[in-house]
Amino acid sequence: MAARPNAAQRAPEPAVRRINLALQGGGAHGAFAWGVIDRLLEQNDLAIESIVGTSAGAMNAVVTAHGLATGGPQAARDALRVFWRRVSLAARRGPLQPTWWDRRFRPGSLDGAPGWMLLDAMSRVFSPYQLNPLNYNPLREVLAATVDCARLRQQAQVKLFICASNVKTGRIRVFDHTDISIDAVMASACLPFLFQAVEIDGEHYWDGGYMGNPPIYPLIYNAESRDVLIVQLNPIRIDEVPRTAQAILDRVNTLSFNSSLMREMRAIQFVTKLVDGGFDDNGRLKRMLIHSIDAEDVMASLGVSSKLNADWDFLVSLHDLGRQRADAFLALHADKIGRESSTVIEEKFL
Question: Which run of H or of E encompasses 148?
Fold first, then answer.
C-alpha cells in the first residue's frame, strides 16, 4: 500500500480570488440569481468581497451577506434556499396563483389567473394608498424571519450596498451594511404601483431599479477587487415588438431599469480606454474587470406576470437555470477572474 503523502507533499490549496457581485432586480426572476450565487458559493477558490443589489437583488444580497457573516458559504446557501422557500409559502396565501392552463402551456405565467387580471386592472386605476391602505407586504415578514439586520450592521466580512430611489428628489440612495435595515431592503423593492413609498429618516423611497439596477460605482470606490460579476435578470435585447398593453408597459419598465446600468457601462468603458492608453490620472482611475451571467434567451420569453409568480416549481426552475448558467460561466471564464474581463462591454451594453 502506498504511503499517504505528508503535509509537505500535498498539493497546495488553490489561491482564493475575490469578486464583487452586482445583482439586478426583477421580482420572482431573482430566483435565477439565487441559483447563480448558490453555484458560486461552491467554489473554494472564489470569495465574495462585496455585493450591491437592487429590489430582488437587494434581498438576495442581504440574505447572502448574512449567511456569509454568520456561517460561511454553506450557511449562505442554506439561507438563500430558506428565504426563497418562505417567499413561496407566503405567496400560497395570496391570490396570485398560476392556473392549471398556465402551468401546462405557459410555465411561469400568471396571465390566466383571476387574481392577476384583477390586480392588473385595478392597479391602473387605483393607487396602493387606496388598494392597500394598511401597506401590507408579506416580504417584510419573510425578510425579518431570515435576516438579523443588527448583526449585519456589525459584520465587516462582506461589503454590502442596497439601492433605492428617492421619490421627491429623484436621487439614488445607497445603503451600506452600517445602515442596513428591513426598511432599506423594502424601499429597494418598493414597486410604486403595488406598495406605498417606504419612509426612512423623513425621506420616501421607491424601487431602486429606477436609478440603479444595480449601481456599479459603490463597488468601484469601495472594493479592492477589480472584478465585478453582474447577474442580469432584465434582458437588454428582445426580438419581438411588444403589441399588447401589458407587453408594452413591461418593455418600457425594462428599458428604464436597464438604462442606468448601460450608462455606467459606457463610463467604465471610457475609463478602460483611458487606462489602456496610458492615462490613469496619477493612479486615481481604476480599470474594472467586467463579467456577466444572464439568461436573456429565457427571460425575454417570460411575461410581466411571471415576475410576481412565486410558485415553488417556477422558482426552482429559475434557480436551476441560474446554476447551469453559472456553471457554464465558470467553465469558460473562471481563469479570467483577476486578469481580464470576460464580457465585451461594447457588444453587450453599448
Answer: none
* Cα separation values, 297 from 180, 242, 308, Å: 34, 16, 20
| Cα–Cα distance, 37 to 301 (Å, whole number) | 23
pLDDT, averaged across the chain = 92
**Burial class for 134, CB neighbours closer than 10 Å (0-12, 13-18, 19+):** exposed
Angle between helices 56-71 and 138-146 (to 10 degrees): 20
For 251, counting Cβ atoms within 10 Å of its Cβ (0-12 exposed, 13-18 middle, 19+ buried), the class is middle
User: What pLDDT, on the 0 to 100 scale, is given for residue 10?
Assistant: 58
**Is there a contact between 190 and 198 (Cβ–Cβ < 8 Å)?**
yes
Which residue, 64, 336, 340, 53, is CA-closest to 218?
53
Q: How far is 299 from 79, CA to CA, in rounded Å?
A: 25
Residue range 296-315: mean pLDDT, rounded: 93
For the entire predicted model, the pTM comes to: 0.92
**Hunting for cell 451594453 — which residue is that?**
349
Distance in angstroms (rounded) separating the CA atoms of residues 189 and 206:
7
Three-state SS letters, 87-117: HHHHHHCCCCCCCHHHHHHCCCCCCCCHHHH
Cβ proximity of 316 and 80 under 8 Å: no
> Considering the chain, what percentage of its residues have pLDDT values greater than 90?
75
Residue 326 CB burial class (10 angstroms; 0-12, 13-18, ≥19): buried
